[in-house]
Structures are given as C-alpha cells and as structure tokens.
Design a protein that fits this description.
The chain has 617 residues and is an alpha+beta fold. Helix content is 43%, strand content 23%.
C-alpha cells in the first residue's frame, strides 16, 4: 500500500470519528430536552392537582348556601388547562373510550355499523358510527354538601386509568374523598357494566339525595337526517307500567316524582339507542328534550337528571347496565324489561301488527334469501296470494259493471243535463241487475292495515338499514335516481326512481282497471274521475323522501295487481256468462231493503229537494 492510500484511510477514519462524536452529542441534547419537557409536564400536573385540592378545600369551607358549585368565584380557582387523558377498552362489537375531561364517556364506537351521509354532489359517504361522541355531552354527579352547596363533579380534577379490562375514573372530592367510576364490557354484547361509589367522606348533606345529570346530544347518523329526527326522542319506563316518551316534535320536559320510579330510560335515534338500566330503579327523574335546528350539527339535545339510591350516600355502590347499540328487536327483548319498546313500530294495533305479524314474516322469509329486496318481493307475493279470493271477487264485480256500460252510456245521453237523475237511475240499474258498486273495495280496505303497518315498519326495522337492492343503496331510506343541484320545491334535492315507478304503475293500473267502468260517482261528478289520476301525482312528492323499502313494495304490488287483472279479465272470466248472470238476476223478484235501495231512496229525496228548489226560482 503506497503513501497516498495510507493518508486517505487516515483521513476517512478521522472524519468518521468526528461524525460519531457530533451525532452522540446531538442525541444527548435531544434526550436532555425530552427529560426537561417531561419534568415540566410532571410539574404542571402536580401543580394542577395541588391547585385543585386547594379549590376543593375552598368549596368545602364556603358558607354560601345558595351556590351551585359552578359559579365563577369558585370555578376560577380550579385550573382550566387540564391535559386530556383517555383510555379505551373493546370487545367484539364495540369499543368504549372514557376521558378525564368532565369524567365522562367520550365515545362509543360500534364496529359493525357505519353512518350514512351525502356530500355536496349527492354521493353517499359512510364513516365509523359512534354514539355519545358530542363534545357538548356531559355526565356529572350533583352532590349536596353539609355547608349548603351542591358540588357538580364535571368540573373537578379527574384521573382516568385502565386496569386489565376495566376503565376507572377517579374524581377528587373535598376532604380527600374520591368518586370512583368503573366501566367494563360484556364479552360480545353492547352492554357496559357500570359501577360507582364514593370513597371517604366529602362532607355530605344529611337526607338529601345525590343526583346524576346526563346530557346526550343525538348525532346525525342517517343521510335522511330530517326523517331520522322525527324518529328520535327520549323513552322511559316505570315498573308495572307501559313505556312512555317525552316528545318527538317539540321541546318538552317531564318531571317524575317518587311515585313513579324509573326502571330504565333511553335516548333513541332512528336505529340506535343509549339506555341506562339501573340495578335498582331511580327514585325520581326529570327528563327534557330540545329540538335541534335544521342547520344544527346535532338532531336533538336530551337531558336526564335522576336520583341515585340512598345507600350510595353511605358508601354503597351504585350499579347499572348501559346499553349502547342497535335497535334490534330480539336482542332488546331478551333483556326482559320491555326495552324493545324504543323501536318505533307504531302504537296500538299498528305496532302489534308490526311486532307480531310483519316482523316474524320478514324474519322467516329472510331465511330463504340474503337480499332484503327479494324478501320484500316474496312478502308481496304472499300478501297477494292470501288476498287472491277477494281480488278475484273485486275483478269479477268490475267486469259486471263493465257489462252494463252500454246501458249506462244511454242513461248519460238521456239525462246529460241532470247529474242527480243520472246517479239515481244508475243506482236503480245496479239494483235491478244485482251489481254492487262497492264490491271491489273490500280487498283494498283489507290491505290498508298492511300498508299503514309497513309505512311504520321500513323506517324502524334496522334489518333494512343500508341493505341494497337494485339501484337503492339503503332500503330504510330514499333511493336516488336524479340529484338536483338545489332544492326543488316539494321534491327536495333528489328524485326517487322507486317513487317514479310507483306513480307510473299506479296510473297504468288505474287506467286499465277503470277504462270500461263508469261508476255512479264519476258519472254524476266527472271531476272524481280525474282525481284518481291526480292523487298518485300528489303522493309522489310525499313518497319521494320515504323509505325505498316501502316504495319498492308498492311497485311490486302494483305490477302484480296489473298482471292479476289482465290474466283474470282475459283468461278467467267469461263475459257471456256474466251477461247471462245479469239477465237472470233481472228477472228474479227483488227483496226490499239493502244498501243499494237505501242509497237509491236517498238520491230520490235529493232529487225532490233539488226540483223543489228549482221550482221556487
């Protein structure tokens, strides 16, 4: 190796040594700075705790009996720059996060569900679904002290930590006492086991109950949040009584005394709820709800103030279950406390039909198909099959009226200037030939309870939430065919294709079904004839923002109605046979009485009154 190579190696070694020294010095500097910052943080935390204890002592010594410990003179002494500390636990279906800020639940993440919203272009977006996540929420104990003040724990220094699968929140109280709250989750359910107790003696007032105030702002979870708002409220139940609610549509307050203990109460969204289920009923409760504005972030603000059982003041534990999850009927019913009442299937007979008829049928049919749209089709076929005998009678009655159309046309021509005369003669002809103009109404009337039940069922049944079928992405909400750049009067920002198809098929069915029929009412008042075409157009605006599961059902129903009518009229009913039946009935002696004769007599009386009125002119 020559001299130049040796010099080169020596220079490289020297440079490497210098680089190592500089790098080591920089690392030591960074570590020293980190230690300094950590020391400052510890000092700040210790100062916060020390200042908090001083503030608590001030609270314990104050003599102002009228104060509620949130007034400025006291809060000013409690440090405001509290660093937030959170802890989280999880199971298979949810995760729970508790924060020291306000000693409350920060959020509950439901792992198997997503929110639904629309961007500015009308495109649907879905995000993780969280309950109780509003920063404005609060949960605080209101503790009456012996000096006449009431201590609200939401402003007090709190430590949050995790011990295994348990979250613990410890809030400092006067006289070195501590409010300890514990949370842990069921293995694979939406239940949170909650327990709290006061350790030590903060100087409680004798004979006064400790209250818990819980404020829960209901978040927008569905894209059709305007409709979601109508299905959101606060429910509660007293032992041995039916469940009740505060209000769906207006600001309201309900105050319940000790004569109505509370078995549970629940803040309810359209498809989810957060419920408190105490081990022992709450003695008293005040519930209130404030409706959110159209542009507010939250749907509604709910507030509950409940009294904790008396033994809590004597060092006993307060225990309850907190349910935070979906409105699944079987899951809620399994708890055995009627918590399933929070699902808005409807009241009285409609609710009973949905709970014990429609819902079990859907669940049964769902065992055959994974797609809820096909289940809706199968339900439609089942309903039409059950009503087929009545439907046949309806079509048969319509065919009999069609056979009389030539004679009715002659009546109209003969009395074209006298509507009442036409009506009277038409009823006489129906009575003569044994035709009941209302004979086709019975199947429609029998379907009305089903329609009304489904009207409440689809927006309340979580089984249809975010279930797609054809172009609909969510059968519990509206489907979108066209998105408008702005709000169109009565329609909104979109047009539903299922609603358009329902309108078209309804108009086609009406036209085909009644084109050869001229009933008494339309003969006397032609405006009624056009109303049957105008009504579907009016209902189109109503159904446009409704659950696409219902409009899908109505479209299927219309299509089946059209097929049934065409097949029955053209292939199952003999027009010659009907004409012979009419002629034979005409020759039979007629019985007196009956609806047709009563209606005819009424028309005659109206005709006489009209003639007498005209004679006076």
């Amino acid at each position: 190796m020559d001299r130049n190579n040796i010099i080169g190696f020596l220079l490289l070694a020297a440079l490497f040594t210098v680089w190592m020294q500089v790098n080591t010095s920089q690392k030591k500097k960074v570590e020293k700075e980190k230690m300094h910052q950590d020391s400052l943080a510890i000092d700040s935390k210790n100062k916060f705790i020390a200042d908090s204890i001083k503030a608590l002592q001030l609270i314990a010594n104050t003599k102002d009996s009228a104060s509620i410990v949130k007034n400025d003179s006291v809060v000013a002494n409690i440090p405001s720059g509290t660093p937030e500390m959170t802890e989280t636990i999880s199971n298979d279906v949810m995760s729970l996060t508790v924060t020291n800020k306000g000693a409350k639940i920060k959020e509950i993440l439901l792992k198997n569900f997503k929110t639904s919203a629309e961007d500015n272009k009308g495109k649907e977006i879905r995000n993780p679904l969280k309950l109780q996540e509003s920063p404005s929420n609060s949960m605080e104990y209101q503790i009456p002290l012996a000096n006449g003040t009431t201590l609200s724990t939401g402003i007090l220094p709190t430590q949050t930590l995790k011990e295994g699968d348990v979250l613990i929140s410890r809030t400092q109280l006067p006289n070195n006492a501590v409010l300890e709250q514990r949370y842990n989750l069921d293995t694979s359910d939406y239940l949170i086991n909650y327990e709290s107790k006061i350790i030590g003696n903060p100087g409680l007032a004798s004979g006064k109950p400790i209250m818990i105030k819980w404020v829960n702002n209901l978040s927008k979870l569905e894209k059709n949040f305007k409709y979601e708002k109508t299905y959101s409220t606060l429910y509660y139940k007293s032992p041995e009584q039916s469940s009740d609610y505060v209000s769906y549509t207006k600001d309201a307050t309900v105050k319940l005394g000790s004569d109505k203990k509370i078995q549970w109460f629940s803040t309810v969204n359209q498809f989810f709820n957060s419920s408190w289920i105490p081990e022992k009923p709450f003695e008293t409760a005040d519930f209130s709800i404030v409706q959110g504005g159209e542009n507010d972030v939250q749907l509604k603000k709910t507030e509950a103030i409940v009294s904790v059982p008396a033994e809590f003041s004597n060092g006993g534990a307060f225990k309850m279950k907190i349910y935070a999850g979906p409105n699944e009927f079987n899951r809620l019913r399994a708890y055995g406390n009627n918590l399933e009442d929070v699902i808005q299937f409807g009241s009285s007979i409609l609710g009973s039909i949905n709970k014990w008829v429609v819902r079990p049928i859907f669940n049964f049919l769902g065992t055959f198909f994974n797609n809820q749209g096909l289940v809706i089709l199968l339900l439609t076929l089942l309903v039409k099959l059950v009503l087929w005998p009545l439907t046949y009678k309806m079509i048969y009655s319509q065919s009999k009226m069609s056979s009389l159309k030539p004679q009715l046309d002659k009546l109209k021509e003969k009395h074209k200037d006298d509507a009442q005369k036409i009506q009277m003669e038409t009823m006489a002809m129906y009575r003569e030939f044994g035709v009941n103009p209302l004979g086709g109404c019975l199947p429609m009337l029998l379907q009305m309870p089903i329609w009304f039940a489904l009207y409440r069922f689809f927006p309340a049944a979580i089984e249809f939430r975010q279930e797609s079928f054809l172009w609909a992405t969510d059968l519990s909400s509206y489907d979108v065919f066209i998105t408008f750049s702005g709000n169109v009067p009565l329609l909104g920002h979109h047009l539903s294709l299922f609603t358009v198809l329902w309108t078209i098929t309804t108009l086609l069915y009406t036209w085909y079904n009644f084109k050869n029929i001229d009933t008494t009412s339309t003969a006397a008042n032609p405006a009624l004839k056009y109303m049957q075409y105008i009504m579907p157009l009016i209902f189109m605006f109503f159904f446009n923002s409704f659950a696409s599961g219902l409009t899908c059902y109505l479209v299927f129903s219309n299509i089946i109605n059209i097929v049934q009518t065409i097949v029955t009229k053209n292939y199952m009913i003999n027009s010659d046979k009907i004409q012979k039946e009419l002629d034979d009935y005409k020759l039979k002696p007629k019985k007196k009485g009956g609806f047709s004769e009563k209606l005819g007599n009424m028309l005659k009386e109206q005709q006489k009154l009209a003639e007498a009125k005209n004679a006076k002119k």
